[in-house]
Structure formats: C-alpha cells, structure tokens
From TrEMBL:
PANTHER family, A to Z: BACTERIAL NON-HEME FERRITIN, FERRITIN
Ferritin-like diiron domain: residues covered: 1-145
PROSITE patterns: FERRITIN_LIKE (PS50905)
Superkingdom of this protein's organism: Archaea
Protein name, UniProt field: Ferroxidase
Enzyme Commission identifier(s): 1.16.3.1
GO cellular component term of the entry, any: cytosol
Pfam family for this entry, one: Ferritin
UniProt keyword Manganese, yes or no: no
Length: 162
C-alpha cells in the first residue's frame, strides 16, 4: 500500500510536469513569434515529452491505488530578451525539476517505499539527459555570442528533433 504522503508528493510532481509542458509551449510560442520554427518545433517536442512524464506519474499513482489530483497550472513566463535567455531559463527550470525528483526519491526512501524508489530511477536518469541537452544548446549560444548565423544554423538543426 502506498502512503498518503507519497501519493501527495507524486501528485505534486505530476502537476509540475504539466507545468513544464505549459512552460515549453510558451517558449515555443515565443520562438514562433520570431519565425524561429526549428526552435519552436524543438520546444513543442519538449512539451509533449513533459506530458508523457506526467502520464507516467498518473499511471503509477493509479497502479499503486492512489488518486490522481490535478491542480491549476499557474501562468508561466511568456517573454524573454533573447534565445540565450530562453535556454538559461529552461536549464534553471530543469535543475529545479531535478531537485524535486531527488526530494521525492529521498521521501520514498525515508518511507521505505521501494517500488516508488525504483519508479523514480527512470526520472533521475532522464533529468541527467534533460540538463545535458539544455546545457549543450546554451553553451553553443553563449560561445557563438548568439550571432544571427549561429542562431539560424541551430534553428535548422533543432527542427530535426523527433
């Protein structure tokens, strides 16, 4: 049996994942408004991935006999000064998500909930990948000084994300 404390924490993370999807859609919209279709596409794929993460939490809560509780999704930032600033913001967001996942893992461990610990391993590994990907794009932007040529080359590359 899963504890109420774990169910509550899992529900919070499910809702954070939906917030992440909302945030990445806002970023996609920002890129679309600047005709950076590759960046917009990349963020839309990222948003879909966050919904998939939320659904993993949804199914896990149900599988363990808990009840999914959906909360309001608070408004997200919709304006940034530059492409670089978008990726700085996104990387910081992913670092916060990593912290939340680690806190959730620690809670599961303190509660002796081995099944939840195992479930969260996938998310721990996923966060390593998420931070790495955002960091790599950000490093390119910073290294190149966000020159128009580099932004357009990167825009074409990001359009290829599946």
């Amino acid at each position: 049996m899963i504890s109420d404390k774990i169910v509550e924490a899992l529900n919070k993370q499910l809702n954070r994942e939906l917030y992440s999807a909302y945030l990445y859609l806002a970023m996609a919209s920002w890129f679309d408004s600047r005709n950076l279709k590759g960046f917009a596409h990349w963020m839309k794929v990222q948003a879909r991935e966050e919904v998939e993460h939320a659904m993993k939490f949804y199914e896990y809560i149900n599988d363990r006999g808990g009840r999914v509780v959906l909360e309001d999704i608070k408004a997200v930032q919709i304006e940034w000064k530059s492409v670089t600033e978008v990726f700085e913001y996104a990387l910081e967001h992913e670092r916060n998500v990593t912290r939340y996942i680690h806190e959730l893992f620690n809670l599961a461990r303190s509660e002796g909930d081995r099944a939840t610990e195992v479930f969260l391993h996938w998310f721990i590994n996923e966060q390593v990948e998420e931070e790495k990907t955002f960091s790599e794009i950000l490093q390119i932007l910073k290294y190149a000084g966000e020159t128009p040529q580099i932004v357009l080359i990167l825009d074409r590359q990001l359009a290829e994300r599946k």
